[in-house]
Amino acid sequence: MIELENQNWNIDFHWVKAHTGNHSNELADQLAREAVSSMENESYKKIPKRTVIRELNEGSLIKWQREWDKMTKGQITKDFFPVIQDRLKLKIKVTPIFTTMTTGHGNIKSYLHRFKIIESPTCPCGTMEQTIDHLIFQCELMGKERDKLISGVSNTDNWPLSKNRLISEHFKSFSMFIHEISLEKLNER
Question: I need a labelling partner for 175 at 20 to 30 A (CA). Which of 36, 99, 127, 148 fits?
């Protein structure tokens, strides 16, 4: 503005009640819209599309993780997948038993009992409530399958492992373990 004054420009500011009908104000609005539109288009022409997509994805992941951390439901799934980005990197063939074991929803006695579908949540082994943790770490009826799982991970770690480590570091062994399980046969006992 000082440059304009040095060139003997005289600038006055006036309040105008509405832009409608005032040719100068309508022209100013039109030029402003064109400038913004032009700037937006120019910005994206200068930034590679893949950069924009990457930044949008990163922002979305941050927001998703924040929401995931605040959630009070889905604790079993959160135990397996505490970090959204790590889950997205995994190549997982989702099957009904995989979904059941990583969510606790399905043919698990504790789940069925919670919805009053069955009378008792007790595992057929008779020791305690049939939960995901019980099936993976304690159930005597799963001993043979669990021994294979333990031998698959024992080369590198001591048993028991967290559910997240079972998935992220020993997915193949964990997948073999859960796919050997027949919850239907187990629960018929």
Answer: 127
Provide DSSP, the chain: -HHHHHTT--------S-STT-HHHHHHHHHHHHHHHHHHHHHHHHS-HHHHHHHHHHHHHHHHHHHHHH--S-HHHHHH-S-HHHHHHS-----HHHHHHHHS-SS-HHHHHHTTSSS--B-TTSSSB--HHIIIII-GGGHHHHHHHHHHHTTTSPSSPPHHHHHHH-HHHHHHHHHH--HHHHHH-
Q: Tell me: the pLDDT tens digits for 68-112?
A: 999 999 999 999 999 999 999 998 999 999 999 999 999 999 999
pTM score of the predicted model: 0.71
